[in-house]
Structure to design on (841 residues):
């Protein structure tokens, strides 16, 4: 899991003090172009999801008769598919499915994972052991297998595939949160807070949570990209939204049959997925640095 | 007139940071063959930067801005790292501060000592092996053949420092730079290491540039003293002269603040015989389970009592069980057996709500103020927090009390909005004390509360503590490894060694008539004693007897 490597490197300086106002100013001045680009990509995709009509006039599900498998041109920016549907329009309209799917998946993972992690890290004892062994079990099963099993239980669909992907993210969130909570819990200031008469809940809320969630925020952004990839994978395998929904993974799968004659049908949605995932990773990285 | 081994002329060192920072500003000093020059200063005085500049190992963002460093008459200031390699170890060597971080954990110590011999081509093969054993014997390691095959984690801190000294003297350099060589060690170990450096100096006639923050150590071991502050020399001269008649105001203050050099400050001893003690610890025992199923006894039958309004000190070296003892008293650790009575409450049986109420009466101040303050909270919320844990106090009343207590510990109201990292070490410790005091506790436990602070700041905090005790009638349980500090502020003392209490009684009794050999060793090892017991002239070749009353 490469995502853990990235976090490991980052979580080391995360314990250091927050940047001073001078340092913050410097960070702002030294914003890297790649970070700006990443935010621009994400903003564009968000706009696609919220107001697809602004970007394309074509209907994403109804084809134009006689206009099948056209190469990219001025009329059809990314060409048309086998039913004569405009590919660009399908990608723009599909963004809402892919993005909400990824968001829901991360939401499920974040909520369940951090809850488990906080519980295990702060209560400790046999509860910690029990929860962490469960997480170990979850980590030991290939993620795709877990997702597919859950989908088979719940049925197909965008939302169900989001839950399936989210379930596989729980383990990572739980591990990370627990390790952060344990680190903070052992610190002198938490003991001092107990020493000045703080009750468990108060200390958890005032000290443990604020100091352990910085890495979790960065991890969430990272997981967003990963969830998008997983959702697309499920879509590609046919376990996601049913056709004719223009979900990105499904678009890649549909274009696959015409790879020799119309390569752009797979390349374009594939590239979009790659770009959005890379942007999410870049933004996650910047969160990590800001947090340290 | 002999040539000095080390001749630093008008050295300037600066660090590139957000704001360029000048660490050493025009320092000139000379070290002659066979002499020990102590470079004394508080943190940030530039003493380590000077030492690092001499051997060319300044940190990445540091550079020499001007001046010259002459080693045996040769200017090495602009030498490349490659050229310096030939000099480092052979002509000048370094004994670093942190023995653990300075040894390679995956190499045996024999291989590490051998490395310096082979790198410089001084010995190889069997001859090198023999020389390694010779060196390890010389620095006083028992069973050198066995030690040579061990890894750093198998040795204690003092043994590791001996290995580093063996590496430093391997090529019999003309100059050894000792950068705080003993500040990470216990006081009795410190004395043995310093004695060793002294002996080796006599034997080889090596000059030593001794970098330290501890005036007591400098007074004992050096022939000349250079006092640094803010990257500039404040005073320079023969150690004996400076100690007797310091010229600069800064040195005078430094001398007055050093607990090991100034006379005991406390004159009025309070004895309140007849009163019930606030704290009574009886036969305290604490066992820890080991992973292999065994049991380690950290505290073994400790008993003491503390009268209200007095200070009791627990003294011991690392691993003596002193921290475990006070954590049990503070209710953070459950003793295996024994009784801890504080103001009539038995700390052993407390749980839940009663434990919370108990903590109102007992507050703990930690050694490291930065680690004990939440980095995300402002000073105001840190000090206010204990008030939120008990019966509700109105917001205005809370603000008033925080302001009052801040005033008490000698901080301005402007600090309220700041965060711990924006404050100095002394200010942070004052905040930690303010947080402990806002609940108006009866007993304040100070766990090495002044050990991490510079000597002048330490003196300020100690006098603040004395003042607060007089005004508020506080009772202190003071944990320290520093006997000099303890003599200054405590009324009674327990000396702990390997979990047992080896000496106990009033400070006068324990210091003047120690009953155990260990306590005598500890008192013997206080740096700065030689000067006190022998008057003005320190003589490093003699050991002092007796203790000044």
């Amino acid at each position: 899991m490469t995502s853990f490597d990235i976090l490991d490197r980052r979580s080391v300086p995360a314990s250091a003090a927050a940047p001073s106002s001078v340092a913050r100013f410097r960070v702002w001045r030294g914003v890297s172009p790649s970070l700006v680009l990443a935010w621009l990509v994400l903003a564009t995709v968000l706009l696609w999801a919220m107001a697809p009509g602004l970007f394309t006039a074509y209907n994403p599900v109804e084809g134009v008769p006689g206009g099948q498998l056209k190469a990219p041109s001025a009329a059809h920016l990314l060409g048309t598919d086998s039913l004569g549907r405009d590919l660009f329009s399908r990608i723009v309209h599909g963004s809402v499915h892919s993005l909400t799917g990824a968001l829901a998946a991360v939401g499920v993972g974040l909520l369940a994972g951090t809850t488990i992690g906080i519980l295990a890290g702060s209560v400790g004892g046999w509860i910690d052991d029990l929860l962490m062994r469960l997480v170990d079990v979850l980590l030991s099963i290939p993620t795709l297998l877990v997702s597919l099993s859950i989908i088979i239980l719940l049925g197909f669909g965008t939302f169900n595939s989001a839950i399936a992907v989210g379930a596989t993210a729980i383990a990572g969130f739980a591990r990370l949160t627990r390790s952060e909570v344990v680190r903070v819990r052992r610190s002198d200031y938490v003991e001092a807070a107990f020493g000045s008469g703080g009750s468990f809940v108060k200390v958890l809320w005032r000290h443990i949570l604020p100091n352990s969630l910085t890495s979790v925020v960065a991890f969430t952004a990272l997981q967003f990209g990963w969830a998008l990839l997983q959702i697309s994978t499920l879509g590609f395998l046919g376990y996601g939204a049913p056709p004719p929904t223009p979900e990105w993974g499904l678009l890649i799968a549909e274009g696959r049959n015409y790879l020799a004659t119309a390569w752009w049908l797979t390349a374009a949605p594939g590239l979009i997925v790659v770009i959005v995932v890379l942007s999410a990773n870049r933004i996650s990285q910047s969160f990590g640095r800001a947090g340290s | 007139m002999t040539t000095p081994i080390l001749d630093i002329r008008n050295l300037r060192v600066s660090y590139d940071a957000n704001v360029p920072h000048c660490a050493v500003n025009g320092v000139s000093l000379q070290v002659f063959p066979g002499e020990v020059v102590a470079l004394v200063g508080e943190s940030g005085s530039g003493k380590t930067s000077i030492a690092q500049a001499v051997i060319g190992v300044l940190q990445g963002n540091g550079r020499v801005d001007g001046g010259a460093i002459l080693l045996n008459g040769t200017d090495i200031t602009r030498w490349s790292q490659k050229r310096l390699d030939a000099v480092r170890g052979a002509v000048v060597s370094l004994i670093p501060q942190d023995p653990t971080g300075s040894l390679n954990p995956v190499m045996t110590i024999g291989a590490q000592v051998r490395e310096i011999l082979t790198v410089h081509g001084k010995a190889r093969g069997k001859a090198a092996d023999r020389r390694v054993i010779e060196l390890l014997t010389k620095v006083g390691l028992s069973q050198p053949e066995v030690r040579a095959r061990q890894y750093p984690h198998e040795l204690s801190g003092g043994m590791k420092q001996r290995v580093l000294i063996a590496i430093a003297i391997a090529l019999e350099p003309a100059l050894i730079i000792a950068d705080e060589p003993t500040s990470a060690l216990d006081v009795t170990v410190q004395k043995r290491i310093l004695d060793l450096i002294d002996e080796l100096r006599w034997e080889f006639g090596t000059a030593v540039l001794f970098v330290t923050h501890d005036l007591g150590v400098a007074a004992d071991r050096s022939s000349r003293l250079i006092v640094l502050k803010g990257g500039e020399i404040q005073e320079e001269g023969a150690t004996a002269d400076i100690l007797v008649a310091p010229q600069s105001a800064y040195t005078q203050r430094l001398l007055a603040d050093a607990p090991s050099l100034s006379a005991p400050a406390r004159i009025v001893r309070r004895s309140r015989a007849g009163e019930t003690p606030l704290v009574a610890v009886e036969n305290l025992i604490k066992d820890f389970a080991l992973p292999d199923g065994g049991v380690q006894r950290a505290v073994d039958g400790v008993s003491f009592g503390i009268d209200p309004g007095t200070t009791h000190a627990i003294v011991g070296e690392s691993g003596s069980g002193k921290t475990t003892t006070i954590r049990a008293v503070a209710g953070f650790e459950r003793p295996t057996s024994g009784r801890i009575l504080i103001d009539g409450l038995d700390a052993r049986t407390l749980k839940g709500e009663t434990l919370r109420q108990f903590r109102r009466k007992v507050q703990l101040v930690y050694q490291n103020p930065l680690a004990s303050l939440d980095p995300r909270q402002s000073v105001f919320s840190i000090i206010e927090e204990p008030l939120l844990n008990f019966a509700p106090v109105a917001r205005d009343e809370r603000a008033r009390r925080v302001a009052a207590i801040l005033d008490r510990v000698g901080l301005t109201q402007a600090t309220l909005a700041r965060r711990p990292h924006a404050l100095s070490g002394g200010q942070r410790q004052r905040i930690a004390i303010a947080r402990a005091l806002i609940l108006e506790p009866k007993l304040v436990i100070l766990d090495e509360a002044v050990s991490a602070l510079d000597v002048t700041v330490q003196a300020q905090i100690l006098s603040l503590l004395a003042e607060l005790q007089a005004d508020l009638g506080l009772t202190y349980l003071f944990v320290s490894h520093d006997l000099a500090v303890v003599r200054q502020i405590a009324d009674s003392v327990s000396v702990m060694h390997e979990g047992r209490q080896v000496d106990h009684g009033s400070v006068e009794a324990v210091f003047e008539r120690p009953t155990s050999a260990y306590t005598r060793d500890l008192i013997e090892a206080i740096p700065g004693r030689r000067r006190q017991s022998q008057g003005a002239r320190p003589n490093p070749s003699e050991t002092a007897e007796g203790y000044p009353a």
The two ends of chain A are 22 Å apart (CA to CA). The CA atoms of residues 181 and 238 of chain A lie 39 Å apart.
